[in-house]
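Ex. 9. Protein: fructose-bisphosphate aldolase.
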Amino acid sequence: MLPHAADDISRDGKSLILAYDHGLEHGPVDFEPNPATADPERLFELATHDAVTALAVQKGVAEAYYPDYEDDVNLLLKLNGTSNLWMGEPDSPVNCSAEYAAGLGADAVGFTLYGGSNHEVEMAEEFRKAQETAREHGMGVVMWSYPRGQGVKNDTSPDTISYAARLGLELGADLVKVKYPGSAEAMGEAVRMAGPTDVVMSGGTMRDDVAFLRTVSDAIDAGARGLAVGRNVFQRDHPERILDALEAVVFEEADPEAALATAERAD
Ligand code: FBP
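Predicted structure tokens for fructose-bisphosphate aldolase:
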């Protein structure tokens, strides 16, 4: 059997991707709950936690900080990304080529596809180039598959999320990151549609510890292979504590409340 192209950003077939492209996607407002996290070094330090299988960042952050962490952190370089400062049909400029990502030492590349946007056609063509170049360099490919725009009525409905997951398979992603479709059953269907492409759940806005861990646990039970999470880790007062709990839930399939209690005792 061929090696899984995303093995470098997984452990035992599961992934816990720490996402930190929020300074671009949402702006400094996302750092307000925990101001220390405006400093990328804080996130690189968090990414050395055993639970984390990769850190997803944009090119500029990687250039400035990754050289000091290349032995301790797996780099998932986001190739496109957009700010929240403009309005219009969803789109995301390519900010970095896959060749350049390989030169920076990336283990994998990440790419957002807004299926259903009036810009879907161009984005899919850009993804094609990134995916094929990543294959040439032996890097894994992670698709942020976020249907939105004029063609999409409900971006988290079960049908939409199943379609989002399927786009990952059809277009050649190793991992496809989707929003939670609201139930374990719907997540299971998305996983089925993705076939050999691993589905990882997107973290979303900050929720309380138990509610968040329960959703992660439900997604794992439904066949998701992990999660890509930003705000639900770095906006907390104790990001390491939630990483301890996530490690137990994702990799050991521990009960969420027991995992949290253990993490709190260890803190
Ligand atoms: P979160 O866990 O904070 O939701 O981060 C995951 C992510 O995909 C980030 O990589 C990205 O910045 C953000 O969500 C985009 O969210 P949205 O497009 O819904 O604003």
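Check your answer against this statement. The chain is about 40% helix and 15% strand.
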